[in-house]
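Re: the 148-residue chain
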Amino acid sequence: MPFTYNRTVRFQDTDAAGVVYFANVLGICHEAYEESLEASSINLKDFFTNLPVAFPIVHTSVDFLRPMFGGDKLLISLIPQKLGVDKFEITYQITVGEVIVAKAITRHVCIDVSSRSKQELPEEIIQWLETNRRDAEGAERRKSREIM
């Protein structure tokens, strides 16, 4: 199964029209990313503050398919994928009930904090990527058997 994160849309997430403000969708996706790291036993405090490497986002995109309103119960599914020795991408699917309301992508590169130069991904991130890839592939195989 892809990693999933449940989240309720709060008033602070919305704009004057009462729908989720476009930039807040990426914040919600980032919450799901953090939860998936923590679920893999990665210490978030160390991950974001004490590592010799960082994982800045170098590209992102969001497709808005339906509006999200305050009080909506979101299910965010994410699948990270290794793109090379120094980068990975996370795809997100946000649903309300059975309806897909948004899809997003964040692409991250691993850098040395001091020199700001690209570095190979550390083992704990490779493990996180591999675990999530296997889980997502297993879910896809199960889904394809159900369709047949």
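The helical segments are 22-39, 44-49, 123-147.
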